[in-house]
Amino acid sequence: MTNPTLPQLDGRPMVTDGGLETDLIFHQGVDLPEFAAFPLLDSDRGRSLLTDYYTGYAEIAAAADAGLMLEAPTWRASADWGEKLGYDRDGIRRVNSEAIGYLRELGRRYAGSVSDIVVCGTVGPRGDGYAAGSRMDPDQAADYHGWQLAAFAEAGAECAVAYTLTDQAEAIGIVRAARAVGLPIAVSFTVETDGRLPDGMPLAAAVDAVDAASPPDYFLVNCAHPSHLEPALDAPGAWRARVKGLRSNASRRSHAELDEAEQLDEGDPASFGAEHAAVRGALPELTVLGGCCGTDRRHVASLWGVG
User: Fold this and answer.
1) Residue 155 in contact with residue 100, Cβ under 8 Å?
2) Binding residues
3) Binding site membership for Zn(2+): which residues?
C-alpha cells in the first residue's frame, strides 16, 4: 500500500502548487483551450511561463523549509482530451514523457535551495471533473489511463496523482494501472458543498471502497473549498489517516456556480491559510498542501505561513 521512498509518506511536509490553469488564464492572459496546460510544453514561451510558475512554489518551499512536489501540467493529457486539441496517441504519449523530463530538469535547478523534491505525473478524470464521471468500470478505467501512467514511469516520474476524481470505480482502475507499471500512486477526490463526491457517495465511503479494492499510496481532496470538506469530517473511521494531501479552491462557490462564472473568484489570499484550520485539525496525517482553482502563489504562501 505504501512506498517508503516518498517523503510525504514519512511525515515530510511538502509544498505543491496552486491553480495552474486559472492562474495562467486570468493572471497571465494565456489561452488554454479545453482548460489544458500541457500544450505549453510545445513552445519556448509556454515553457518559460511554466518555469516562472513552478519557481514561485519552489521559493515557498525553501522559505517554509519544506519539500516540494513538482507536479506535471498533464491533468488534461489523456486520449479523449488530447484528441480535442489535435494530439494523436503518439503525440500525447510524447508530451507526457517530456513533461516529466522537464520537471526533472527543474528539480535539479531547485535542489540547491529545496530538499526532498518529488517529480510527479498528474492524471485527470476522463470526464469533466465537476460532474459525475463517465461511469467506466475499473477495468475500463485501467485501460484508458494505463498508457499515460506508463509514459510517466518510463520517463522517470517518482509517483503519479489522479486529481479531481468523481467516482470510486475510476479511482480503482487508475490505481490498478499504476501498480501494473510499478508507479506509486495517490488518488484525489473532489467533493461538493455537502462533502460528498459529485456522484453522491460520501467521501469516507469512497476512500474505504478504493482501499478495499485496490489501495493507493495515499489520498487527497482537491478542487473544493475547505468549508466544503467539513461535512465529510463528521464520518468516523480510519479513513481520515489515509488523506495526506489537500489542494483547495479559493472560492466558496459550488462547482456549478464556478462553471458559470465569467470572472475569477480568488477569495481572500491572506486568509486562505486560516480557512483550513478546521480541516487540518481533523486530518492528522496531512503532509502535501497546495491550492487548486482560483489560487496562486499568494494563497499557497498564506497556507504555509510564509511571506
Assistant:
1) yes
2) 223, 292-293
3) 223, 292-293
